Amino acid sequence: MFNQLFANVEWSDMLVATIETFYMTLLALVGTFIFGIILGLLLYLTSPGGIWQNKGINFVVATIVNVFRAIPFVILILLLFPFTDFLIGTLRGPNAAIPALIIGSAPFYGRLVEIGLREVNKGVIEAAKSMGAKTSTIIFKVLLKESTPALVSGLTVTAIALIGYTAVAGIIGAGGLGDYAYYYGFQRRANDVVLMCTILIVIIVFVFQFIGDALTNKLDKR
Amino acid sequence: MIKIKQLSKVFQTNSTAIQAVNALDLSIDKGEIFGVIGYSGAGKSTFIRLINRLEEPTSGQVTIDNQEITALSKNELRLSRQEIGMIFQHFNLLWSRTVRENIMFPLEIAGISKPERLERVDELIRLVGLTGREDAYPSQLSGGQKQRVGIARALANNPKVLLCDEATSALDPETTDSILSLLVDINEKLGLTIILITHEMHVIQKICHRVAVMEDGRVVEQGNVMDVFSHPQQAVTKKFVEQVMGKPDDELTDETILKQIDQGKILRLHFVGEIANQATISQVAKKYDVELNILHGNVKQTQSGAYGTLFVQITGDDEEIKKAIDFITSTSVQVEVKEHV
Question: Are residues B55 and B95 both part of a single domain?
Answer without folding.
Answer: yes
